[in-house]
From TrEMBL:
Belongs to the binding-protein-dependent transport system permease family. It is found in: Cell membrane. InterPro entries: MetI-like, MetI-like_sf. One of its GO terms (biological process) is transmembrane transport. This is ABC transporter permease. One of its GO terms (cellular component) is plasma membrane. The keyword tRNA processing does not apply. Residues 71-279 form the ABC transmembrane type-1 domain. It is a multi-pass membrane protein. The keyword Transferase does not apply. The chain crosses the membrane at residues 71-100, 112-131, 143-164, 185-206, 263-280. It comes from the Bacteria.
């Protein structure tokens, strides 16, 4: 019986590992192909000869992007947007979730505000009214047009509100006995206990701000003020070769195609997230699961 049990466990383990490897390959192989294409020659990429290794290795697609001064300006705009947007998101989400996590005995109007939050999550005014509001506030072509419309993430408010409710009530009562006011209780009790949830919200905010390109198209009309994602989707591999007199430059342009350039854009755009994600990964699963369960 013991031998049969061990054999069943062994087979199930093998099946789990095989499934995990298969899923990993399904995710990893397209990414490797994109990286390889970005380093391949135009002819190889166009002919579909690129697999997971570069063919006709060249860095010209990256040179085309990195030699562009506007690229670095847009990069810094995106960095500033991520920093300001994430800080503002966290401050507003925390100050909104904390009172909503209280019982109706402590916060009499809690039910009204909860309904307001749920309504805002399910319905919105639409793109045109939002554009009109941003326009009337004089925010067009400023970085605040990219940050303020999404400053309060309703889903994040609900996530953090449920996490706050899971903090033992006895900790808050002990702090009140020691003379702490609500702000001190929030800073010294709730925030340290909510690090996994805050890290998850922080990651959501960073990814949302970094990957968003449509807000730049909608609210920014000057190319010099574009965030990175909006700018790189405008970079084209179409060159006017009749104006190129430098032979080396001409060779560089001929070795770039739309496919290799787009692949280089994808690689460059995900590098900052690949750097940030491992630092927050250990909190991600805990924050997502614990905050979603209400006992």
């Amino acid at each position: 019986m013991q031998i049969q049990k061990r054999k069943k466990l062994y087979i199930s383990d093998v099946m789990i590992y095989l499934t995990a490897v298969l899923l990993m390959l399904l995710c990893l192989l397209p990414l490797l192909n994109v990286v390889a294409t970005s380093f391949s020659s135009s002819a190889a990429a166009t002919a579909g000869k690129v697999g997971i290794l570069p063919v006709g290795f060249t860095l010209n697609a990256y040179r085309k992007i990195l030699d562009d001064q506007q690229f670095w300006r847009s990069f810094m705009i995106s960095v500033i947007r991520v920093v300001l947007g994430t800080i503002l998101n966290l401050v507003l989400v925390i100050t909104m979730a904390y009172p909503l996590s209280k019982s109706r005995r402590e916060f009499h109007s809690q039910g009204i505000y909860i309904k307001f939050v749920l309504f805002a999550m399910l319905f919105n005014g639409g793109m045109v009214p939002l554009f009109m509001v941003v326009n009337k506030l004089g925010l067009l072509n400023s970085i605040w047009a990219l940050i303020l419309p999404g400053a309060v993430g309703v889903g994040n408010v609900i996530l953090l509100m449920n996490f706050f409710r899971s903090v033992p009530k006895s900790l808050e009562e002990a702090a009140e006995i020691d003379g702490a006011n609500p702000l001190q209780i929030l800073i010294n009790i709730f925030l340290p206990a909510s690090k996994p949830c805050l890290a998850t919200i922080c990651l959501f905010s960073i990814v949302g701000h970094w990957n968003d390109y449509f807000s730049g198209i909608l609210y920014i009309s000057k190319t010099s003020n574009y965030p990175l994602q909006t700018y790189i989707q405008l970079i084209s591999a179409a060159f006017d070769l009749s104006k190129v007199t430098d032979i080396e430059k001409l060779k560089q342009y001929l070795s770039i195609s739309t496919r290799t350039l787009n692949s280089a854009k994808i690689v460059i755009s995900v590098i900052p997230l690949l750097i940030i994600y491992p630092a927050l990964q250990k909190y991600f699963t805990t924050g997502l699961v614990v905050g979603a369960v209400k006992e």
